[in-house]
Amino acid sequence: MSKSRIYDVTIKSFNKKGQGVTKYRRDDWEGKGKNLRLTIPRTIPGEVVRVEVPNAMNRKSAFTHPIEILKKDDNRIDAPCKYFDICGGCQWQHFDYNAQLKVKENAVKMHIENNGFDPSVIRPIIGAENMWRYRNKMEFTFGSNGELGLHEMDNFRNIIDLDSCLIAGSETEKVMNLVSEWTKQSGIKTYNKDTKEGILRYLMVRESQHTGEVMCAIFAADDPEPYEEEINKLLKTLVSEIENIESITWSKNTDLADMTQSERTVVLHGRDYIHDEMYGFNYRLWFDTFFQTNPRQAEKLVDLAIEFANPTKDQSMIDLFCGVGTFSLPFATRVKRLAGIEIVESSIESAKQNSEDNDVTNTYFLAKDARRGIDEVLENWGRPDVIMLDPPRSGAGGKVMRRIGRLQTDRVVYVSCNPETFAKDITWLRDFGYELKIVQPVDLFPHTVHVELVALLSRVEK
Fold this sequence. Notes:
Layout (H helix, E strand, L loop, with lengths): L4 E6 L2 E2 L5 E6 L9 E6 L7 E6 L7 E3 L2 E6 L25 H18 L22 E6 L5 E5 L2 E7 L8 H17 L13 E8 L6 E7 L7 H14 L3 E8 L11 E7 L3 E5 L2 E5 L9 H15 L6 E5 L7 H5 L4 E6 L2 H13 L5 E5 L2 H12 L4 E4 L8 H10 L3 E6 L2 H12 L3 E9 L9 E8 L3
Parallel strand pairs: 4-6, 12-13, 17-18, 17-20, 18-19, 20-21
Antiparallel strand pairs: 1-5, 2-3, 3-4, 5-7, 8-9, 8-11, 9-10, 11-12, 13-14, 15-16, 21-23, 22-23
């Protein structure tokens, strides 16, 4: 192995993870004039940084941290979180928030332009009112040595043992610390991903910003009964310390996949769900319910979607990828009837329950994939007047978009959490006579690279 080298480099751009990237031309005789691609987190394009690269002459790329910032960008600030340099939860706490917004807006413009659309339809980005404590849900992982926290940046095996998290709600942070303290005292072993031994795997905390209700969901590799005595100590602590804790559950999860899922869920306290509110509607949230993680900011997405769709009481509408009905219910009060289509059956059951809880009676929810769901709605109702879709990060895909295009509705409203897949998706609608009219970026997740948008496409060719 060749020795380490010290290089002074200029950061060229951000990658998709929000990390600084650049290339260094090794012109010395050992390097043979080849480029070394460097990924350097916690840096900003234009900055000059000094880095150390191990085995520098025998590699094409490297991930490394700056030893020193030789030339700072004017938008560099001090990150308030003490874990920022190592934790993977945030990417841009060192970057002024207004500058973050500009980068996100430019990313939307780039993807729009790259796919042949006019970037002048893009409105200035809407920033978040709250840059901290904005998340209503956090998933923490137990480390093999008793840690409880988030994954280390670019090292999925290591868990940062947290005692604070500035993007989590204050009650969420309290629950995390109480569970962490209990874990270290209980003697119940935490899970080791390599050996597949241990019990405690994940902690999920939901905290409603509207109702104040809190959920604590523990995921473990065994049933709770063998640990009843220790669990009762935790319950006593949580109930006495967390005023509005309405749900404490224990879910058995022996699957090798690294995700929060359940083979059997036991309610330890209260119920297996909590109530949350968005846009004036009440929702029941279970541990596996997909719900907007920043609901106050997400209400702006609903406002925009309604503005762009401009629905009327004599119209019918389809809400594709409807989830638990976060867009469906506000729209249903403005149209004659609404069909929500979602492939996840548990989400559809939740959407039906949420409609009933809110006395919304003109909805029709289908647990089908998007194309089959559209066909069923057409068979029962005929062509809808408005289509809205809010697909996952991977986008809707060409088959679904072509199916939407063939419907020939006057307006299509697309809500996206990924401008890259959004821009690819809407290219399919051009052949069906649709024109991109408005794109409104919205920031829901300060200090991360993620950006949302709401777009309107109108049919201009008959």
